[in-house]
Amino acid sequence: MAIQTPASTPPISLHRHNPVRGILMWCTAAFFFTSQSAVLKWLADDIHFSEILFIRSLVVVAGASVLLARGPGMKAPFRTRRFRLHFGRFIFFSVALACFIEAVKDIPLADATAVTFAAPLLMTALAVPLLGEKVGMRRWSAVIVGLCGVMVIANPTTGIFQMAALWALGSALAYAIAIIITRKLTTSEPAVVVVWIMNVLYVVVMPVFAPFEWIVPTWGQVGLMMLSGGMVLIAQMLAVSACSMAPPQVLAPFDYTAMVWAVMLGFLVWGDVPTPTILIGAAILIGCGIYILLREAQVARAERRAQPSSSES
Fold first, then answer.
1. What's the pTM?
2. Full residue range of the structural domain in which residue 32 is found
């Protein structure tokens, strides 16, 4: 009989199958990401995005370092054997941001946003060949219905068909691949390690732009960037943790909740009254989300009931 050596022992996955909790985390992360986007709206006209990312990422690294010290330890990021995946995640998230910025230079924001919401469709599709996940008709239907709701809200113009929209589509594709990589990483890496490494890479890379674009910010602008960093820390921790609890095709439709949060924040902060079209689109998104949440809870209950019977047989 062959003796199983430690080298041949299969790695223990850190994934915990809890789709309902993962969905709730993903929606909460979408709220914090949208909130920090509202903060960045005040900064983007005066400060280059690389400077914003640098200071924001410094705050995230500081917060994540505290979580590391209280959890897996400060040495944990340096013990990773998956740095290529970490670096790939950083690259694809950076490409997604850069492509989106290029898109909004030539087409309206609503049009660019509508195109980038192809990301959930791409996430669902890519989960099959890259992760070996199974995607049923119900999940495909939920993603497509959610996309319809987003299109109703965004009300894109003919600008969506311009060549510049390819930048927005590139952003959606890069984002979808980044989420797939995140799902792969969370099999072996704690969420705080994933967040810490990515933001350290931002801190290292962003100063490359310093001689060309950076300015001395006011204390008020620094405060807003630090607030943005705090929101991003919470959002990234929640999003990465969600990826460890549910596969991308389950989380994908809840990317659309960002549009609902954006409408709510627009009303509360800037007094933008939602139009009937926005309310109809939001109702479609909320209904779609409630359906998926109830469906995943039903599936989880069925799996829990099946486990004792299968263990007894």
1. 0.82
2. 17-301
